[in-house]
Amino acid sequence: MARQGLTATLLFAVLVATFGTWFPMGYIIVAMNGPQTAVVNWIRSVHCARLGGIFCTEESSLGGCSDNYTEQVPSLDLWCKHYSEEEETNILGDNPELNTFWAISSSFLNVGGLISSFACTAIANKFGLKGAFYILAALYITGTLTVCLAPLAGLFEMLVVGRTIIGLSLGSMCIIAPLYTAELTPPSVRGALGTLPIVTYVLGFIVATSAGFPMALGTETGKNGHCLEWKIY
How far apart are CA 153 and CA 76, in angstroms? Predict the structure, then answer.
């Protein structure tokens, strides 16, 4: 019997299985680090509008917007006032409620992953590894769309819901993908191809970090003055 080795079809299948699961896992983990200030200010602007205020931009703050809120409605000050670049590090520290929500939105990705990791065996047994891939991919797409539609809907709560759904997908995916890859690959190349998940995982880190730079997509207002970049990111 001829010794089985690496073929183009096998390499393509393994790359799809690993890049499509471990790359987005690495990306989503650090995705909120780069545009943190932009996302936090968007949350503040939404909550400011809910309270009946008008969010202070850099231009409006020059006309005393922040001072008016402080004097007339002190409770709106933390949500509506403008922070200069030097003061941006104090946004979360000054607003405990905002700080709590930011911590929840960041950590619930891991909560979803923890819950899902206990369910992956049942999913794989019931639907098989390939079927589990389809289900988890649909779950990931649902979570991603929920997060992406949050700015359009004006609901920052959708960040928590979407990231939790993504975590539910990735928690099982990080277990299902290596099992699927191991079943596909012959023993002669299993060790070499087994390194691809961690390679694509780190690649997701690098891409997300690079895209989060202010000169890329991690900025609140882009080159043309439109606050679209961080939403694409």
Answer: 22
